[in-house]
Fold each of these.
Amino acid sequence: MSVVNKTIQEKTNELAELVAWFDGDKFELEAALDKFKEAEKLAAEIEKDLNSLKNEIMIVKKKFSSGE
Amino acid sequence: MEKSIPQPIFSVSDFIAVVNQTFDYAYPTIEVEGEVASFKINQEKFVFFDIKDKTGSISCFMTVWQLRVPIEDGMKVIVTASPKLTQWGKFSLTVKLVRPSGEGALKKSFEILKAKLSSEGLFAPERKRQLPSIPGHIAVISSTQAAGYADFIKILDDRWGGVEVSVAQVQVQGVGAPDQIIKAIEYFNQVEHLPEVLVIIRGGGSADDLSAFNDEPLVRAIASSRVPTLVGVGHETDESLADLVADVRASTPSNAAQILVPDKNEIIRSVNFKVSSLLPRVDQMITQQAQAINLILVTVMDKIETAIEERKSVIGNLKNVLIQLDPNKVLARGYALLRGKPVVGSVIEIETSKVIMEAEVKYVSSK
């Protein structure tokens, strides 16, 4: 897995933790707005990261025909 | 009068050499199509068979290592060969390559090789390895001119990014294709920066076009790749031995890209959905908490009301007692109230419900 993808993965995990917080026992109405803003920011970052990633295609110079 | 040119006199060996030289010059490589007869393998090394049609027959010779697909008597084949006259004066074809010709022969050859490789366990499910969930580096073996390759790259780019894609440009059909693909597999298995997945793709084509992927050495090369393999050859209905031996089989090149990487658009949709579902959840929590608070208020109000009622009841009872203790009530029942000292000779006041009077005490005794 590439370094950038790892970061996306980390952000995705972080977002999953935030979402779980809303469903969990530690949920507090007072903290919910801040947590929501954090989740919204993470989602935007993940979308941006995913859309900015481009595949790098490299044609191997070696020839594979007979005798080469 | 015509002058006769003296004809050279050859030794037998020289003549054989001259004939072979002529063959080499005139027909360095020929392709002959015919039906296989008298097929046999000697010492597990040398292959002999005849190739014939209705009126003719030619002997053929090749080594076992050159025999890349199984053949048997009655099978229609095309041989790529060089004609040769042996030192015993026998004409034969030295075969470099033999391939089945026609749908029936291709199918027959496919089934024989499939059964053979299957008995060796090459297609066994326990041999299959998992592909990484999101590979960072993949190797693609295909023809970059082919539609299948373009489809694969398009779907890959649409679905995911950040993947390093090393591409080996090879022939994906024809006589040279299997060897080129084998070389590319070997190359990617030896490079320092090993890819995480080896993807072999080719779009649709005729049975003959796709027959390169039923080549025994190629199938074995895929089986022995230390890099996990993903093969997507032809259309959904096509089945090749390369498909069967691969760790993961894709139905088409596009499907190979779908298997290889997740769809970023789906991930984005899912992430946004998760976040957008948080606010209603907060609303729900606010409603729940408001309901809980209301419930507490109602309970408290109930308790207060009960306490008030209890107090009212106590006060009512006390009031009744007080009413009963009212001296006027007692007087009304016929009793009288005396004021003064009960001493003989003293004057005391007597109050009834209707009058107040004074009286003199004439006699006092204890009870």
Note: Strands of chain A lie at 56-59.
Amino acid sequence: MDADTLGMWTFLITEVLFFGGMFAAYAVYREMFPLAFAATSEFMNVKIGAANTAVLICSSLTMAMAVRSAQISKTSHLIRYLFGTLFFGTIFLVVKAFEYHAKYVEHLIPGPNFHPDNLAPQFMHNAQILFFLYFCMTGMHAVHMIVGVGLLTFLIIMAYRNAYNEHYFAPVEMIGLYWHFVDIVWIFLFPLLYLIGHWHW
Amino acid sequence: MATTYQPTTTEAAAEEPVNYLNVEHGWKSWLFTTDHKRIALLYLFSITLMFITGGAFAILVRLHLTQPQGLFSPETYNRLFTMHGVVMIFFFLVPSIPATLGNFLLPIMIGAKDLAFPRINLLSWYLYMGGALFAIFAVARGGVDTGWTFYAPYSTTYSNSYVLTAAMGAFFAGFSSITTGLNFIVTVHKMRAPGMNWMRMPLMVWANYATGLIQILGTPVVAIALVLVGIERVMHVGIFDPNVGGDPILFQHIFWFYSHPAVYIMILPGMGVISEVIACFSRKRPFGYEFIAASSMGIAILGFLVWGHHMFVTGQSVYTGIVFSFLTFFVAVPSAVKVFNWTATMYKGSVTFESPMLYAFAFIGLFTIGGLTGLYLSTMATDVALHGTYFVVAHFHFVMVGGMVVAFLAGLHFWWPKICGRMYSEPWAKFAALLIFAGFNLTFLPQFVLGYLGMPRRYAAYPPEFQVLNVLSTAGASILGIAFFIPMIYLTYAWFYGPKVGPNPWQAKGLEWTIQSPPTTFNFDQTPTVTEEAYNYGPREENYVA
């Protein structure tokens, strides 16, 4: 493993712990308020969430293809796959923006204006915690996606200048690692936030 | 000055070989440098300014406490001790040794030209400065009053002070710390010279490596805690908000998950410095080198398992407390291993008493007191009585000032001839070391007694019978405050006018002493091959004069 790769993995460990603080908070409150969380999760749009999950998995595929293309010096393929990744990443963010807007319209933003329809009154307080976590966790994930989109744009510009080939592809590989990490965060976020209480055992 | 040798300016210019200091000039050569040695000096300058800032707050705190009812209003007092804590912890103690001495020495000690990521190293300094600007802004607008711990719900809801600004400052300083740690870890793994295997690495490198691990694992957690506090403060609802069922104690868990390991970020590099200094001035291989190295790693790992001892009296279950108490005793073992091994290193060594060694002696004594009083606090039964009293304040300052700041000074004196190629005044250095030791003890020993008698920390007023001890403590703080300025003066003087020294004024071992003082930009003319560990000490040669 060369220094760049080790540095990137070390950074990703840092990122795991950064998100880890919120995941720990989620675990604590889910254990404290299981029924409120299950009831609140009904307000999440599972179809859109699932579709967005698929979009992100596709973006990971194109990112992996992009790294491979760089490694074998196929710059035209590299540019194509980077655009693909950028496309899927942007789709995800646009869908996410619409989702946030829908939450706003349905009065699901925690705070004084929080009054969702059809939520049992005993959950009105605790439900705000789940929504707070929802906005923090997906928001922080979206911030990372936006950074990733910026990095992809940088890669595309550099790829047009023929910067990457089989001898030098470290930036593509590093940003690829970052992109996959951000996707994996979503893979955990989706079931934890959207799928609680949708089945009963 | 001890010496009379003063080169004329023309003589100095003619003799000065090219080094990292004179190779380039002008502000751009500093602000855009990627040389780890220049970045170390940028850091040294910055953290010294922050140390003076934090020290000024400490003096004001001590002045306030000379009167039972205090000199300032309670609100002002709350802001004074908070700003003292925030500035000293996030902007001095955490970066102190790693970002300065570690930055300067770690690549040289393993035979590398620079750190693995020189530009990220520069970025780390800019992140630090960004954070420092936020902190200074918070100070200028009137400060924060939450205590450096930012406990919810006070910080999120009730405090009417610049919490967001100070938290942003700590957030940025945290990322500066992460980038430093990341750089160190990758450098140690990837940049070691041929022959420099793990069991030949200087203990300073081991200590900074262990520190790097804590920095990358702990700091992001406090970063997210501060983000959550910030969002809650802005939105007036959040996960620490009891109104919606949130648990403020969760904040304490997340906060201390970083902030207890953070005290090991602060002390471990100091232990690395002391290991080097004691070996050199005892002319011996450190006794149990492998155990000292392993104990650094042990402290780094165990340090993550003890945060609950900050919460023995804040609503944590007794059973959780028992586990944390036990683990806290356990973390004392590697610390004790170090102290015993340093002592054993000196045994039958050829011990001399140069100023770095005086600081090392002070470190061992003060750190031992600080560490052992930590055991009083890790015992749940005694902690119930001592929690939140001046006993904790004294314990913490024995480790952080008596330990870390003293170790920082030891290292600064030890490597100053390497950093600037000139020697400082040894008599002044010895005088300053003794004055710091005396001032320190006069400041903090009375606080142990005050805490034992029940004086709570962070209160603006106290019963009149505590006044004598408080005045003693303030008198000590005044001595300490003056004593800290003495090294700043004679080290700065030595930078410009001190007598020049050769590559190895202490006749020490280790790669940093084989290259010229000050080093060239890329440290080594050709990559060295290492054939032995850094501690092949024998008797001094005849010509040793220090």
Note: The interface with chain B takes residues 2-3, 6-7, 10-11, 13-15, 17-22, 24-25, 28-29, 32-33, 36, 110-112, 114, 125-126, 128-129, 132-133, 136, 140 of chain A (CB under 8 Å).
Amino acid sequence: MKWRNSTVIPAVLSISLFFCYSGLDHQAQAQGNADKEKITVLSPKGQPPPIQMKPMAPRLDTLDGKTVYLVNDGYLGTDILLGEMQAWFKANMPQVNTVYKVKGGGGFTAEDPDLWAEIKAKADAVIMGMGH
Amino acid sequence: MAAVVGHCVNIESILGVPTVPLIISEFYEQVKTHHTVQKGMPGLRVTYLIPPVWGKTAEQIRRDIVGNSPPTGKMIMREIVENLTKPLTTEEQKTGTIEQSAGPASYTDTLDNLQRIFLENRMTDYMPIILPTEGKVAQMLKGTSHDPDEVVGKMAAHTAMPGENNVEVFEHWSYTVKTVAINAVMAGAKPEYLPVILAVASTGKEAISVSDNSFTEGLIINGPIRDEIGLNYGIGALGPFSQANSTIGRAWNLLSINAGNCGRVGTTYMGVIGNPMNWNNVIMAENEEASPWQPFHVRKGFKPNDSVVTLCEGWGILSAKNSRYSVWEREMDFSGTLKKIVADQDMLFGAMAVLSPPVADYIKEEGFDTVEKLVQFISESAGGQGNIPQAKKMPPLPKGKLPQGKMPFRWGPQINIVVTGGANNNYWSYGGMAPRQSVLIDDWR
């Protein structure tokens, strides 16, 4: 028997369309499942350290007769700020002895052991600036 | 501002002397909820100033300090006195240890919800991520021989300058090889990139600096690893044109956000303008083969066959065509132009020139057969175009003798040369970026 194109082509197309549709349906179902399916993923976080609470220093009864260090941490304008504060103490609380210091060490965060030792020995209180 | 808090916490707790840190009121939330708590002194008596202070005249400041502190409404000078004399409350005298948690070890939900959870909890760079399933992380861990539980390092939103004795500004979070692998998966990295990412992670250097300067970070990658993992050092070397270049920088960012607690606006990120280079950092694989000079890592003392990553920090890199000196001329004077540009540049981070191979070749033909000779030439007085300091290590600043009105920085000056990119034209870039530590990638294979 001789196959006729007019019969074969529609048949092949029908079969193809069926599988095509069927595949799309499965894909849609899979996508739907993926949308609903729950998976477990890992946290990318590091571990923060515990916080050790530190004691604050006792406050002074009065500033009269006390020595207050005005410490410049190095940010621009702090020299003017602390200078004006020093002038305010002189004008308004002349019993307060103020000492202006520039923290050394070459950076805002740098320690200055010599200054810390001086503060421990001579200062009753510290005003430090400036957080810009 | 965190430095002032740190110093005052130490003066109070170690020296036993009462303090008042002075901080502009823009940082109230950051200091109140973050810095004082993390440093273990939530009651630290900060007096907040009327911003800004920098730039104001003495007369303006004189007026401000008898004005009211914005958060409290109290006259600033009276509040300072009160902060030094008012007895401590019971709350302010609390001591002990507070354990902190980074949250759950895993999350279970649908794909869309997990993307949302990661984004809303600021565990991404606001772009979609590859979700780090146990399977994908296990696959990533095949990129290294190191134990997944090995602690790689600690990171904070601010890194102290090398060699300095510094007060801790931000708390340091710790992380393991597995944490690094999880973030590498999220970034879209391949397992073979992991040794590079681990080497970077081992330094503890954050990719996203807290600084209000809006700094960016960078990597210079040298050695055989470049070809092994497909890093691009040809056309578009500094751009997003290979998976390795794109995802290594992103992995560093994600690690910094998640494992170093960096990049949280208002607390651990304060860049005033921000920096587009923060998206992926400045990733530079050197074109060693096309360079007329020794590779960057060899000049740092490593062997040619070592695979090395060098971390950099600074303002970023931009085309030299941005400079008025780098005009199109019939005959280009590349070394002279480089010298003029460097002379006009702020030297906080020194200068970094990123030369394409043809430009490097031109400069070599001018007689600079080593980078050292070129750097020496650039470092000399720039003949009427401004002067730059000699390229040598700055002496330490004298204690307590900081010139008034000067910033106490001491990284620069230094000049660094990297050769990378294509050979299709005579272009080059420059910027202020200072190399910090160089790390052997091979140690993390």
Note: Residues 382-412 of chain B have pLDDT under 50 and may be disordered.
